[in-house]
Amino acid sequence: MTERANLISEMNDRSREVFRRVVEGYLETGDPVGSRTLTRTMSEKVSAATIRNVMQDLEYLGLLDSPHVSAGRMPTQLGLRMFVDGLLEIGQVTEDDREKIEATVSSGNRGDVGSVLDRIGSALSGLTHGASLVLAPKHEAPIKHIEFVSLAPDRALVVLVFADGHVENRVFTPPIGQTPSSLREAANFLNALAEGRTLAELRHVVEREIDARRQELDSLAAEMVESGFAHWEGEGTSYERLIVRGRANLLESSPEAEELQRIRELFDDLEKKRDIADFLEGAEEGEGVRIFIGSENKLFSLSGSSLVVSPYMNADRKIIGAVGVIGPTRLNYGRIVPIVDYTAQLVGRMLSGKT
Question: pTM of the prediction?
Answer without folding.
Answer: 0.69
